[in-house]
Amino acid sequence: MRLSVDCGKIGLLPRFLAMSLALGATASVVAENPPTQPPSSRSSASASNGGQELDELWVGGWFSHNVLRVDWQTGASLGMFIPSGGGGLSEAHACSFGTDNNLYVASHGNSTVRRYDGETGAFIDVFVPAGNGLIRSHSVFWNVDNTLLVSSELGDRVNQYEAVTGNFLGSFVQPGEAGLDGPEDIIQGPDGMLYLSAQSNQILRIDPIKGGVIDAFVEDDPDTPEDETGGLAWAHQLRFGPDGNLYVASSQTNQVLRYDGQTGAFLDVFVKSGGQGPQFPVGLAFGPDGNLYVGSFGNDRILRYDGATGKPLGIVANLGAMGLDGPLFIEFFPGPKCKADLNEDGSVGAADLLILLVAWGPNAGHPADFNVDGVVSAGDLLRLLISWGPCP
Description:
The chain is mostly beta strands. The chain is 9% helix and 36% strand. The strands form eight sheets. Strands 3-2-1-24 form a four-stranded antiparallel beta sheet, with no helix packed on it. A four-stranded antiparallel beta sheet has the order 4-5-6-7, with no helix packed on it. The protein has a four-stranded antiparallel beta sheet with strand order 8-9-10-11, with no helix packed on it. Helix 1 (7-23) packs antiparallel against helix 3.
């Protein structure tokens, strides 16, 4: 994170500020091969994350109302990205990066989604206010059409919001549809469908284009004596593993359960309770090393398990000593976004400047609109110039 400006960067400022003033409200730049706009977003990270190195584990604190960065290899704290209650954050429940490379956090305690600068963690705005059936926001997921999906725990529904304005677009999953009660996490599966966990001990499969429930991928059949879910109780975060199967945190049984990735059939208890098992597991993520990382809500720890066998590999981090209480979500990210690196080549330079100038003027939603005021202008240019050079 860059907090100072060296002399070389200061020397660049008058030249480019004069250029920005001369350009006025618009800019027309001709290039033989102009740089393309950067990738749309950094979604909740998978193990590969498009080839980016995933060197950080991000954790949300339910009781401490903050977001912490942890080195997943050493377990050391990399600092608070959002301090306790920063920007009105209450009970951090989920996070995801948007197309503007800012961080969106589900603030469960006040039923909102709050937006933070993806590089500095500074609060920007309340992107989604409470209302329209959003009662206790749980997940934040960027869909294939670049709309934001937010699950509403007490509204028993999934809402859809426009990407740039945050305007409410209606229910993506209707209240109580297919028996939905207490929706939790949303992910995209290998088949392109969306998967939604719920406190009703279901995993529902959702149509990503039309919305609505396709089927109950995991659900107990009340007409049979056995429990087809394998004892799933209060499903929280879910992930597809390297083996293509679905892993679900079963919080009330202190387990992680595994299901066939194609049929939804229960396979086994992958992480067992007791001993070195988690206490009320909620967060779940596969790391760059292929192992499974589990947030142990009951004792403020991140635990690691062999990604192939489920064998306990020990404690990764004691979060309580780092100022986080009640780990609710865990996500792997490559670290705070160097936002001015618009072409994502690891350095802020002429190519990024060209992207910004082509976007000059009213351009809400463009990644070069760093301050999210709907206009790419002198303030955004100044931020790019201050960041000139290799990304940290």
